[in-house]
Amino acid sequence: MIYLDNSATTKIDPRVLKAMLPYLQEEYGNPSAKYYTLAENAKRAVEKSRENLAKLINCEPDELIFTSGASESNNFILKGIADFYSNKGNHIITSLVEHSSILETCNYLESKGFEVTYLGVNQYGQVDPNELKKVITKKTILVSIIWGNNEIGTLNKIKEIGQICREHNVFFHSDATQVLGKIKIDVQDVPVDFLSFSAHKLYGPKGIGACFIRKDELGLKREITPLIHGGGQEFGYRAGTLCTHNIVGFGKAAEIAYNEMDNYIPNIIKLENELKAKLESEIKGIKFNGHPIEKIPGILSVTIPGVNNELLIRKLKNQVAFSTGSACSFNKPSKVLLAIGMNLKEIRNTIRISIGKFNSDIQKIPELIKSC
Ligand code: PLP
Description:
Layout: E1 2-3, H1 14-20, H2 37-57, E2 64-67, H3 70-84, E3 91-95, H4 100-111, E4 115-119, H5 129-135, E5 140-144, H6 158-167, E6 171-175, E7 194-198, E8 209-213, H7 244-282, E9 287-289, E10 299-303, H8 309-315, E11 320-321, H9 335-339, H10 344-348, E12 350-354, H11 365-370
Parallel strand pairs: 1-11, 3-4, 3-5, 5-6, 6-7
Antiparallel strand pairs: 2-8, 7-8, 9-10, 10-12
Helix pairs in contact: 1-7, 2-7, 3-4
Bound molecules: pyridoxal-5'-phosphate.
């Protein structure tokens, strides 16, 4: 089986699993408990993971909190900002190509009286920063724009967008789930206030994610209404006993990405370019979606005339795994592909191939597709 759905999830790195296991066995202390060694060990492991993730994005460790995943991080930031800053304004700006955990949260906030502007995108799936300038009003409290798209791989102009938000004194959040460990993220260079992440896209475990929450101008913690109230864990932003083993797994995955990204990303790009060239030469009329250069390494959105994507995936299900688009929007036409101007027929002809660091030989993919 050739696994090419690495944007849906990744296989856990064996070193990540190894790092996690002690925290499911002998090191079972609660990191929030006090004074005894078992608790101290767990607390130390959590803080080490926070440091590893902080190193990967160049922030302070206490600017990161752990969540259950990027869906929760997205919900927390959007709902938390909307609630806490509602006296300042009721307007949120996002785009048509966000993950469902942003779009559905925006729908929910609209039902609570917030106004949401959904920016369109160009043919590659990018938000035009000038369009953003036009729609910011005095009531805008938050802009949330995806960093790199999960379906077509296109990268947004996050630095420019962040600068516009700074100039207008508006918070800026970006869903960075698909870019962590694939492109360099440096929050000292990019004016972003909040980021969302998920470990399972990074060869880490499922059910664990994080939020970057930049401190304010005075170096104080930014105030946001918590999504989960309770015991005050995670600096009061997110209550609940910490999932130590998953946090340790995320930390190890971040450490590996920090040390090894420069080795495995060029290999992913090489595999992608070779596959793209082979698909182009062997399948007539094939089309690639998304930006050809400003893109996440490894994601290929491919439209193959005359092919039904669902049937193709089912026919090849024991040989290869790829997807019609986002794993979270199966059975609905992709909003991302609609937003870049594709019609329903083209969308049905489209598959997403996402290459990861464990892939090696994927050259028989065109042959497999042609055999269907
Ligand atoms: N945001 C993006 C861009 C994603 O690709 C995903 C996962 O598919 C998510 C958010 C949700 O992540 P999680 O599975 O950790 O909730």
